[in-house]
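Weekly modeling sync, notes
Attendees: S.R. (lead), two postdocs, one rotation student

Agenda item 3: backlog of single-chain predictions. S.R. asked that every request posted to the team notebook include the full sequence so nobody has to chase files. The rotation student volunteered to paste the first one in as an example of the format we agreed on. Action items at the bottom.

Example entry:
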Amino acid sequence: MSEQFGPRRPLGVTIVAALAFISGAFDIIGGLLLLPLQGDAAVADRFGGAAMVVTMAVISTLVGILTLVVAFGLLGGNPVARIAATILQALSLAMSIWVGITQPTTLATEIPSALLAVAIVILLWTSDATRYFRGLAPDEPTS
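Predicted structure, as returned to the notebook:
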């Protein structure tokens, strides 16, 4: 990519955006899989009632959708998307831990979601990513 279009996107940022797409998909899938379990008395009891199951399913799905939107911003080098992605991944991680503990049957989606959230946050804050989100060339100092 030529410099007339802005600084080149580092591979790490491209990987982060791809991971954000995957993480968002896992959150959406996890939320959608949780929703039909509201009628299961054992599941509802673990979550504190059927309404809480629905609430958690909706929140997980919305976090996933927001994560997908933010992923597009990351590809464009939007610094607000970087902050939003960090916040969304922290929420995703917290929800994955909570849901995984309270509903072990969802571990197949919650463990990968949690691991992806951690990887995304780490990659978002590398020095190459910082230069990219500040609109600097790869050889420009960040200060």
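Discussion: group reviewed the output briefly. Helices lie at 11-34, 41-47, 50-75, 79-102, 107-124, 127-133.
Action items: rotation student to repeat for the remaining queue; S.R. to check formatting next week.
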